[in-house]
From TrEMBL:
The keyword Lipid biosynthesis does not apply. This is Co-chaperone YbbN. One of its GO terms (molecular function) is protein-disulfide reductase activity. SUPFAM superfamilies: Thioredoxin-like, TPR-like. PROSITE patterns: THIOREDOXIN_1, THIOREDOXIN_2.
Length: 309
């Protein structure tokens, strides 16, 4: 299966819609410049007297058809429409035909000369599509992360799914989707999603954060209420298990500062409790929150102060 078949359909273009057109000086802006803002457009400059052109054009048509709407081909007869070709030829140093110029976002970005073999033409188009999908994917991931941060799990999951439709091994999207499942309480599906991360990426920061969130969610599933746990701690300040559970419950409710204070208090009182369990739990929280989160930065600083006091 080729990369063209693996990449998801372009979201704004129906497959098969005007994939191959004969463009003119009058329609060039519409066919090429404007269309390239939606998907890559290859312009095939040819002439009836050009033998290699007759070899290349069918190859281009076959590859564009196989791309299923992710790219477009615009053919231009330079004998009938010389002005645009002359302008681009001067701009890009073209001295002969067949010449293929690729457009994206309204600008010429790449090209080749001569009748290339099928494989090379396919690789050229695949690279254009991959680059285009990569740029769109980055924008979608930014929106997905923002939705996740605001706990809009439905919007975040939809956005991550869009990225995964284009790249089913995208680590950031898989980790984000797993966190969405955690947010909605579907721990089992979160675990299944995280298991899809490639082996070599299991230690990625985003994956570590998602894994830590899953573990935390599992730990907090059967905890009592914060009020009950606070009462236990007040009744017996040395009930470190109650204080530990309280920290987990506080974190689950989004009170990171309180969770930090509860665990740090255990470290201060009895560092060895539960095989250094409070410090280890703090490290897990830092993984779940991410290295740049304000609570992580503050928490690491406070923990260092306690450990090295």
């Amino acid at each position: 299966m080729t990369m063209l078949e693996n990449i998801g359909e372009a979201p704004t273009v129906a497959p098969g819609a005007d994939l191959i057109v004969d463009t003119t000086t009058q329609t060039f802006v519409k066919d090429v410049i404007e269309e390239s803002k939606r998907r890559p457009v290859l312009v095939d400059f040819w002439a009836p007297w050009c033998g290699p052109c007759k070899q290349l054009t069918p190859t281009l048509e076959k590859v564009i058809t196989a791309a299923k709407g992710k790219a477009k081909l615009a053919k231009m007869n330079i004998d009938e429409h010389p002005a645009i070709f002359q302008q681009l030829a001067q701009q890009m140093g073209i001295q002969s035909i067949p010449a293929v110029i690729a457009f994206a976002n309204g600008q010429p970005i790449d090209g080749f000369l001569g009748a290339l073999p099928d494989k090379q033409v396919t690789e050229f188009v695949e690279r254009l599509i991959k680059d285009r999908v990569g740029d769109e994917g980055k924008d979608i991931l930014v929106a997905a992360d923002a939705a996740l941060a605001s706990k809009d799990y439905t919007a975040a999951a939809d956005a991550y799914a869009q990225v995964l439709a284009q790249d089913n091994a995208n680590v950031q999207a898989l980790a984000g989707l797993a966190r969405c499942y955690v947010g909605t309480g579907n721990i089992e599906q979160a675990q299944k999603t995280l298991a899809m991360v490639p082996d070599g990426k299991q230690n990625d920061t985003a994956v570590a954060a998602a894994r830590a969130e899953i573990e935390l969610a599992t730990q907090t599933k059967d905890l009592g209420s914060i009020a009950d746990l606070e009462a236990k701690v007040a009744a017996n300040p040395k009930d470190y298990q109650a204080r530990f559970d309280l920290a987990l419950a506080q974190n689950a409710k989004g009170d990171r500062e309180a969770a930090l204070d509860s665990l740090l208090e255990i470290v201060k009182r009895d560092r060895k409790w539960n095989d250094d369990g409070a410090r280890k739990q703090l490290v897990q929280l830092f993984d779940a929150w991410g290295p740049t989160d304000e609570a992580t930065v503050t928490g690491r600083r406070k923990l260092s102060s306690v450990l090295f006091a």
